[in-house]
């Protein structure tokens, strides 16, 4: 993989014995909390902005009713924002652990992550990625609040059908990256923002120029310690220069997940390592007396599931029905994206492939279904972009698509990119800081909610997006009266 790329799935996954995952079922509808109404209008937003920082008994009672659980706080005085003691303005530190599947936090003694959980607010069970559950689409949804169809990063790599240009993970031209990422929102309001890696952070947008003191060009070889220490140094700046938003990205445990699958001891080791990095960060903030003032949001972009060669679907097997040319294929697995040339009817191609898959004569054919993008389930929000290829194949959990049997990978590894309703695709969310109740659990939610959550904490008016306007109130402590 190119050194300038973020980690994503490799096409040659390795060895581990296939884990039988007890949580294979699709979510029940009650588990899918993000079905709240989503409307974004600037008018509504400003109204909300005012109410979020007025503490009303009603709002508190509402939040308490919704989220009280055995672990909820019982002391009402703790139901209010804790005032800043050292910082002059709210600061959000947004940390991504790539591929941190929900539940990894129980694999080892992750003392530092658990410290954030026990004194913070956690999504239980987990944070729901957007579809496709891939690294770039999800990281950019987290910072824009938009589904990939609206923020433009519809895959880790794709071809623009009108210009023919190719997007890759090292494409930094602003035309690819739609929407308004958080760092742009922050600097548009005259505040500082800093990024130590995040997909899209090197792209110049609005008043965000990726300034060298606050923005780093992606280099996966930069040791994690160096990333943490650089960020800690920002807290030694004069108060008014301390960035309001800081992002921090770690490639692990995604890297190990692809190579060995989610149930390998290598994952446990990687988790202990990232937990130590969180510990280093907490210690540095404590040393500077700002740990309780800073809002730490720890999350991931997606989960991970084991996949093995015996779960492969080979496109060559479709030949008696249709010849799917390799140059029609924009991505193979687990998101099969096909853009046939214009002389072919996409509807016919879908029909032929589905005939083949359901014939009983294609190996694992029953584990994939092809759709015209406009016919995909609406909950995937994966059609409203000219960049999304006409034909999308949805693959069952843990299955993979390959051109032919000659493509030999290692036997078993891990993958993500599947339907975001699979529990295995979920990741972690923990918020710790003045606006987060200690020891609270909130229901699972989709990561498009995070943009509004962070602009609420920073008291900024955000750009229109796909998050719900009522979400921040349901999770955050109200500002003090
Ligand atoms: C949680 O916060 C309290 C202060 O509010 C502190 O005394 C306690 O040590 C913290 N617990 C952990 C596990 O960090
Ligand atoms: C990437 O980071 C490593 C470790 O800090 C450094 O040695 C290397 O020179 C960097 N590469 C580039 C292209 O900056
Ligand atoms: C998502 O947000 C964008 C920008 O506000 C809007 O154009 C689009 O209709 C929204 N889509 C959904 C499904 O809410
Ligand atoms: Zn990822």
From TrEMBL:
Give residue spans, biased composition: Polar residues. Answer: 1-21
Transmembrane residues, as ranges? 43-67
| Key word Transmembrane helix present | yes
Q: Which GO terms describe its molecular function?
A: hydrolase activity
SUPFAM superfamilies per the record?
A: Alkaline phosphatase-like (SSF53649)
- Kindly indicate whether the keyword Repeat belongs to this entry: no
List the protein's name. Answer: Ectonucleotide pyrophosphatase/phosphodiesterase family member 3-like
**What is the species of this protein?**
Dioscorea cayennensis subsp. rotundata
Query: The organism's lineage?
Result: Eukaryota, Viridiplantae, Streptophyta, Embryophyta, Tracheophyta
